[in-house]
Amino acid sequence: MADDVARIDPTPLSLECLGLTAGGHHVPPFQLHTGEAVCLHVEPASPSWYDVLLPLLTGRVSHPRLLIRGTVSYLERPMPRRGWFGRRKDCTARDWLISERGLAPAEAVPVLDRASVPPEMKIGWLGWNERTLFALESYLVRPPDILVFDTAGNDPLGIRRLFDRLATRPRRLAVIYLKTNLGTASPCYPGKGCLDIAARPLEIASVE
Amino acid sequence: MLGGEWDFEGQGASFVYWQQGRTVWVGEGHHRANAALEIGQASGDWSYLHRLLEHGTCEPSVPPPANRGRFPTRGWLSRLLTILGW
After folding, report:
1. For B36-45, which contacts have Cβ atoms below 8 Å and span 24 or more sequence positions?
2. N or C end of chain A, less CB within 10 A?
3. pLDDT, tens digit (0-9, with 9 covering 90-100), for A57-113
């Protein structure tokens, strides 16, 4: 019995990358367990990371050297959609939560409160930091197993607020931070047990 | 900004943008970008805009296509286009 208990992995594997190359991006081998965080330093390459890495990491494109167990979501910020003749459909924050994120009206209220976004605010008028935090709150209502996110376009305050909020995320939620700005002023995702991989800077951290 | 009170260096990092050639996409700092644009258009002095870009945070590459859009200004044409949905 004791052996059976010992064999149970307390933190199941959510994602395993055996090392791969895609579109000029070399992703080193790494594992991501439940609740862990990984900080992937994305160097500028052509085609861009959102065309190559995102489809891979979110499972939209399968790769034999990338094994994903569970659900993955990319932290997609609310953006006005283009409709006929390029016209923008700029819905309200409340409508975006319901129509795009699939939340029930009752679930939308606390999200709007936590993000301090007025329900009738048009999403096109939200600042980038505000928009990112608003999106994050919406994803935390029914969190996936893995959340992929970036901070491109966010200022240092916005990045800090995002990290602070993610520090209190559900314990089972694993996160992948695509760090696209490798400047020294831009922080890595904080955590314990950072690990650098030589080929490409990579840091792995676990949530306490 | 015109009064010389804007701290371009101190507030610089919080101005976040992408740039490709002469096209700039602003992530954070729309208000100050608008102020610098209006000064430039009114006086021909584009140094305010250049200082914003110089001290701001330039993101590598370009933003995802779905995240790009027209920069909203306070001009009548921009307002009209916003009302019309463009």
Report:
1. B36/B1, B37/B73, B38/B73, B38/B74, B39/B1, B39/B2
2. N
3. 999 999 999 999 999 999 999 998 877 777 778 899 999 999 999 999 999 999 999
Answer whether A25's CB lies under 8 Å from A19's CB. Answer: no
- Comparing CB atoms, the residue among A44, A127, A156 nearest residue B13 is A156
ipTM (interface predicted TM): 0.82
Tokens (6 digits) for B20: 């490709």
Please name the residue ranges forming H helices in chain A. Answer: 2-7, 49-57, 93-99, 105-115, 128-139, 156-167
Per-residue pLDDT of chain B (86 residues; tens, 9 = 90+): 888 889 999 888 899 999 999 999 999 999 999 999 999 999 999 999 999 999 999 998 888 887 888 888 888 888 888 777 77
Of A80, A124, A154, the CB nearest to B28: A154
Shortest CA gap B41–chain A (Å): 24
* A2 CB-near residues (< 8 Å, 6+ apart): none
pTM score over 0.80:
yes
3-state SS string for A190-204: CCECCCCCCCCCEEE
Cβ contact B48:B34 at 8 Å:
no
Give the DSSP H or E segment for B82: helix B76-84
- Which residues in chain B are closer than 8 Å to A186, comparing Cβ atoms? 57
3-state secondary structure of A129: helix
